[in-house]
Amino acid sequence: MNIQTVTELYIAFRDSLKYRDSSAKRSRIKHTIREFAQFVGISKKTEQITEEDCTSFLNRRNTAVTNAWKKEHCAIKKLFEWACLRGYASVNPVPKQLPVFPDAHPAYIYSNDELKRLFDASLTYMKVESPVTDPRCIRFILMTTYAMGLRISETLAIRFKHIDRKQQIIHIEDSKFFKSRYVTYNHQVAKLIDEVFEWRKSDSYPMEPDDYIFVSKLGKPVNFVTLHCIFAKIRKKANLYFPELKRFQPRIHDLRHSFATNVLKSWYKDGKDVQSLLPKLSIYLGHSSVSHTSVYLSMVPEILEEANKLFYIYKNQNHENFTDNKG
């Protein structure tokens, strides 16, 4: 059986089981295995596909082992595992000996100026108008992701039925770890949401409860993979490419990191009890543990500086109290 047939059978199988993956993850897996079939040749028999074919596909962009490399390796490995169990392939050619994975991609915290440049560039990054991509939609996606501290997959999955404009609440449904949560937003974000609704209305897009909020000019949900390619162009237009960082360039996901650190900074500056508020931020972000949220405490020098100031005040106050009591 040729690889294209096996690929489509596998996709149909996954769809029939309604895997509890996010729409972005499902889209990414489909894109990866279809691209793999194209890469090796859609008419090529599964028995003819070698480990060298798989390695060449995984290293087609570069030889660096990135997180994307790991996801693509996992996608085609599971494809062949499924094919072997059903007799569509006799062996799994995906390499079993994995290279050493590098450290995780460090977070990049955008400054207010850099955020403005990103949002502005999202409207001007295209040299020629696209028949599919609407720059206004891309700008709304980036602004919503930052303003609410969402994962990009969560932003793309928002439908009209998820938004309660009266209560200023968005229902994030079946996100990471298959958890759902309610995310509140303030009056500033409410204005942004109103702009999004006006955009949809002015362009005569359908606005039924099950319709996705962020769509292309064709009315289809914005594709996760396509959006990341667009963001690379926006980042370049915004002058946010740093050669010294090599492959660790600022990402869309760093909008979420920037939101979290900015919340913590404002709490420290306002003299709030950050330790008691940290669990609330963790729930808001949809983290499975407070420990995942506490990582943000050490990400920005300003946070440590504010913490040191508070500790200095606390130390001096306690020293004075001790001296008074002693006297």
What does this 3D model show about the protein?
- By secondary structure, the chain is mainly alpha-helical.
- The chain contains 13 helices and three strands.
- The chain has helices at residues 3-17, 23-40, 51-58, 67-85, 112-124, 135-148, 152-156, 187-202, 224-237, 254-269, 274-285, 290-294, 301-326, and strands at 163-164, 169-172, 181-184.
- The protein has a three-stranded antiparallel β-sheet with strand order 1-2-3.
- Strand 1 and strand 2 form a beta hairpin.
- Helix 2 packs across helix 4 (67-85), helix 5 packs antiparallel against helix 6 and helix 5 packs across helix 9 (224-237).
- It starts with a helix and ends with a helix.
- The mean pLDDT is 87.
Summarize the structure.
The chain is built from 13 helices and three strands, in the order αααααααβββαααααα. By secondary structure, the protein is mainly α.
Please give a handful of descriptors for the protein shown.
55% helix; 327 residues; 13 helices; 3-stranded antiparallel beta sheet; 3 strands; mainly alpha
* Neighbour order of strands in the largest sheet: 1-2-3
Structural class: mainly alpha
Mean pLDDT: 87
Report the span from N to C terminus. 90 Å
Number of strands: 3
- As a percent range, the share of helical residues equals 55-70%
Computed over alpha carbons, the radius of gyration is 24 Å
Count helical runs: 13
Shape: globular
Helix and strand string, N-terminal first?
HHHHHHHEEEHHHHHH
Biggest beta sheet summary = 3 strands, antiparallel
Percent range for β-strand residues:
under 5%
